[in-house]
What we know:
Layout: E1 5-8, H1 11-22, E2 28-33, H2 38-45, E3 49-57, E4 61-63, H3 65-71, E5 76-82, H4 94-107, E6 110-114, E7 138-143, H5 144-147, E8 156-161, H6 164-181, H7 186-198, H8 200-203
Parallel strand pairs: 2-3, 2-5, 5-6, 6-7
Antiparallel strand pairs: 1-8, 3-4, 7-8
Amino acid sequence: APERIVLTASTSDAYGLLFKLLADAGDEVLVPRPSYPLFDHLARLDVVTPRPYDLEYHGAWTIDFASVERAVTDRTRAILVVSPNNPTGSFLRPDELDRLAVLCHHHSLALIADEVFADYELTPGAASRIIDRRDVLVFSLGGLSKSIGLPQVKLAWIAAAGPDQVVDAALERLEVICDTYLSVSTPVQLAAAELLERGAAVRD
């Protein structure tokens, strides 16, 4: 639903907004390993501590859930996933999403899913429907830089899902944060519909 989508200038901007929303100084977010090093920089800029959990390879890349459980502390506020992951190219599987949702529910954590490359499945249906979750607070991140190959146009988004009351409260606070920064320009907002339509050629 449109009212559950928040516009940002970039996915990096989106991470910063979500860290401000979910965490206080010294709180922690769990980040996948291997992954690209952006999370460490972004988390530390918001005085949040990144704690790694492992991806392991046994014919295919999967989440090492024992490492996730070891990484969770009473200061953990969110688990970050990247689907498809960079550099492994692996998508979050439905059973992994279910297990993460159980963990998030048990520990009152949010799940933040970076899905900027989700339009580029090599196998149709490889992407899990993270945004369909109704049991835990989830945020799905996307942006024009990857979905239509325009990194300098500077438009990205956060889509929120989960229990209605929890999502509504989060979006109300997130709106205040976004209004404080006003990072998205009006011209790119007005052009977004046409850019997304033309971007189909890039995705194909």
